[in-house]
Amino acid sequence: MDGTERENVTEIRIPFRDIDMHGHMHNAAYYAHAEAALANLWRHRPPVKNEPAYLVRRSACLFHRGLRFDEPARFTVSVAKIGGSSVSFAVRVEAGAHLAAEVEIVWVAVDPSRHQPVPLPAATRDWLAGYTA
C-alpha cells in the first residue's frame, strides 16, 4: 500500500471480524468491502437532476488467494462496461503485488417510483467513461 489516494482506490487492513475459522476472509466480506470501495467512488459523481435509483442486477467474485487478518488490501474500482441503462464495475482486490480476488458488480438505473429501467444520465455516463478499464 503506497498511501496513494484516488477516488477509485480504497485501502484497508483486513479486520478480525471478517476472518473465518480457517484464517481467511469470509467470502461475503469481499463483496462488502468491494461495495464500500464502489460507494467511495460513487460519492464523486456529478450532480444529476432527477437522478435514477441504482439496483444491483448481478454480482460475482473470482477468488485467487484468501486474505488474512490485518493484511493490507487495495480495492481498485474500474468501469468494465457502460450499457444503455446499466453499468458494470470491476473491483480488483490486491494484497501487495498479488491479486487476491476480482469482484464484478452490475448496476441498473431505474425510475425510483416504478423500478423500471431508465437510460443512464448523460453526465453520469460521461463521468463513468473516465474510469473504464
Automatic annotation (TrEMBL):
InterPro entries: HotDog_dom_sf. This is Thioesterase. It comes from Sinorhizobium glycinis.
